[in-house]
Amino acid sequence: MQPDTTSSLSVGISVYTQSCVHLQDRNFQDNAEFFQNCFEAGRRFKIMNPAKMRSEYGKLVYLLMDSSDDQVQNLLEFKCVRPLRTVYTLLEECNGLAVLQDPLVEAATAEIVAGMSTQTSCLGLWHLTQFSSLASQRVYERLA
Fold first, then answer.
1. What stretches in the chain show pLDDT beneath 50?
2. b/e per residue, 102-125, with b = 16+ CB within 10 A?
């Protein structure tokens, strides 16, 4: 057996044994944050990639809808769905909403897009990308 196969096998066995312990004890609440993070990751991925996970996302939504049933929540002892954590909620928690009003925030968070046109040489494109990155970094430093 290859070393990576052996380590994969041992990780799989340990995950299986740990999950069996949790299922036997019906102690789901200890892993509530883990499950909530997994479901949030799926929801975030779908928001950022609307064309992907078409059928899987529907199944996830049905699962999360069913998990809001009182009997299921009594069994799990936690809510599977929590509000999505966004930049706005993070800034709100830290009393930093004023940074969103700063006119430089758009430049600091702008995407650096490198498009190749027929009139742009590779070297010119590299300089344009470096300039955009440097400008964004300087604005970020001013905001910090």
1. 1, 116, 118-127
2. eeeeebbeeeeeeeeeeeeeeeee
